[in-house]
Design goal:
Elements (H helix, E strand, L loop, with lengths): L2 H5 L10 H13 L9 E2 L3 E5 L3 E7 L8 E6 L2 E8 L18 E8 L10 E5 L2 E7 L18
Parallel strand pairs: 1-6
Antiparallel strand pairs: 2-3, 3-8, 4-5, 5-6, 7-8
Length: 151
């Protein structure tokens, strides 16, 4: 009888993606989904880049265009607004309310080469798409060096 062989537990190791685990942890701290009925909703977004522009798209289901604000301030893109409460003023009795309502906000740091004058925002089918054109890189300026002449 080999008791050690029968009582040994088999363990399985799986590789851990530390970046994914950290993202999950941090999103849990800041995401409205982790805190039911929290005051501030944090919309999910994608940030992409091409040679000509950056593009930010945010999921805002159930939001009307009039309730979406987009601002640029000191190198930050701020998306904010409010999702209306669809249960308010209803003749229905709700047994479950999982859809979120209230204020939402998301802030994204912008790179230095964004042309702020030509930014466009479009809202369609619950998705806000903001296009941020890149500005031309400043060209080096040659400065002539002179000497002081003896007076």
């Amino acid at each position: 009888m080999n008791r050690c062989a029968t009582n040994r537990r088999q363990t399985s190791f799986r590789p851990v993606d530390l970046y994914r685990e950290m993202d999950s942890f941090l999103n849990g701290l800041t995401s409205a989904e982790s805190k039911p009925n929290s005051e501030l909703i944090v919309p999910r977004l994608n940030v992409a880049e091409s040679n000509e522009r950056y593009e930010v798209s945010a999921d805002l289901p159930g939001v009307s265009q009039e309730n979406v604000n987009v601002e640029i301030h000191e190198g930050q893109l701020l998306i904010s607004g409010e999702i209306a409460d669809s249960t308010e003023n209803s003749e229905m009795t709700f047994h479950r309310v999982e859809r979120r309502f209230g204020k939402f906000e998301r802030q994204v740091s912008l790179p230095e080469n964004v042309n702020e004058q030509d930014i466009t925002a479009m809202f369609e089918n619950g998705v806000l798409t903001i296009q941020l054109p890149k500005s031309e890189k400043p060209k080096p300026t040659r400065i002539e060096v002179t000497s002081r002449s003896a007076e």
